[in-house]
Amino acid sequence: MSLKEQIFNLLEQQKGKYISGADLAAALHVSRNAVWKAVKHLQEEGYAITAGTNRGYCLTTENDILSVQSISKYLRPEFCDLQIEVYDSLDSTNHKAKEYAAAGKPEGMIIIAQTQTAGRGRMGRSFYSPRMSGVYISFLFRPHFQAQDALFLTTAAAVAAAETIEEVSGYRADIKWVNDVFCHGKKVCGILTETSVNVENSMLEYAVTGIGFNIREPEGGFPDDIQNIAGPIFLKCGDHGDTGTDSEVRCRIAAGIINHFWYYYQHLTERTFMPEYKRRSFLLGKKIQTRSEPPLVGTAVAIDDNGYLILQTENGEQVALSSGEVSVRMV
User: Which of 17, 226, 247, 302 is packed most tightly, with the most Cβ within 10 A?
Assistant: First the structure.
């Protein structure tokens, strides 16, 4: 861990309080000048650190930048060794994770960004990822199962996201098959799993699952093409109850999805998340239409143990829909 990171850790632990340069230097066995230089670097990176003569340095409570340290304090102890990287901006967290996968990086890499300039969703759609109003996170996995089982990463992620939202906000979160999480009747979270498959044995070489949360409405609102669909977890600025500041909420969301999703991944073959996935799926009993050609119209009657949506068509036939084949809309 670099000196800069060590100093940030100490300031984070005493957030809102001053620590003298002499105390920091003594604790880290460096000179006061080395402490000063490291703090200057942190300030240049955007961290709100104030300095006062005869007082020292203070990480202000208004600090609104995500960091590994501020997220890690909310992680379960067994997940603190996961390799987390936090960026102010990326084109796509999934893209970064896939680059790491191609370079041979091990599973357990977690990429987080405060904004994405080219975020992507399913079916080639873009995913709106504005600065400071959401959290965008991707996981790199190297699972030992076949490509057809990759759907369980998406369903497990949806349950983990819904549980995280409820844990942090207290609001009910439901799932629209297969990968959208809704709150207050609007989509507040989207999920995209991308894989690389060994064609010789149909086993996954790697899988990357990206999850994007709309935590609060962006300045100026959502774009016209999604404003009737997308919404924030927290409906108005400051609507956090006792969950803390904007920064703390985003840190808790990031840590929460790591805690829940990584646990489910460790037990993926047990499919312990499937009952909860089915219970939260609000399409069941609704009339839907697929976005396939030609489209199918019918009633969503069940989700089977493989995560397929069972559609009963108007002629009484039951069809199992795979997430890789179609998307759906309510009629």
Answer: 247
